[in-house]
């Protein structure tokens, strides 16, 4: 009997040693796996792009073409304006003075100025694109030439209405494409021949914002 008990004690001892070894090996493996598992990292916080600010004064140059009143001609001029932005809406006041180069026409306009309000809406992820409508007062000279008689000229005031789109291109520089309809009404009469001036203006411009 004593030999059986000794054998059983030996078997139990071996089982306990094997179980302890397995448990110890499992603990080491689990600890090693935890050491190798990468720490979770948080995604970087979203930062919204900075919105472009249209508020402030600006000056610019523009050039294009004038089509109407019996003659097509080039037009070039300077611009002075101010914008005030409220949310995506941009409200502005703009004035310009332009010179026109006529080849030959009975009714012509040699210089043209406008004072206009503008209402625009800043679009795009950063608000750098602004379509707008514009309208106001136009003024300029109307010349009326009658062959064999001569030419008379008078300064007239009328109106203008149009629209366009302006976009920021680099730093304080913006570029625009614009259409204006201009009507200066009736001009001077010479030898019973009257005159009337209205035109369509398509021009591109470059503005510098301060």
UniProtKB/TrEMBL annotation:
Gene3D superfamilies listed in its UniProt record: 2.40.160.20
Domain of life, per lineage: Bacteria
Pfam families in the record: OMP_b-brl
Domain Outer membrane protein beta-barrel: 21-210
One GO CC term on file: cell outer membrane
SUPFAM superfamilies hit by this protein: OMPA-like (SSF56925)
Compartments where located: Cell outer membrane
Keywords carried by this UniProt record: Cell outer membrane, Membrane, Signal
Signal sequence, renumbered to the chain: 1-32
Location (main, coarse): membrane
Classification via PANTHER family: BLL7405 PROTEIN (PTHR34001)
Family according to the record: Belongs to the Omp25/RopB family.
Protein name: Porin family protein
Organism: Undibacter mobilis
Top-level taxonomy: Bacteria, Pseudomonadati, Pseudomonadota, Alphaproteobacteria, Hyphomicrobiales
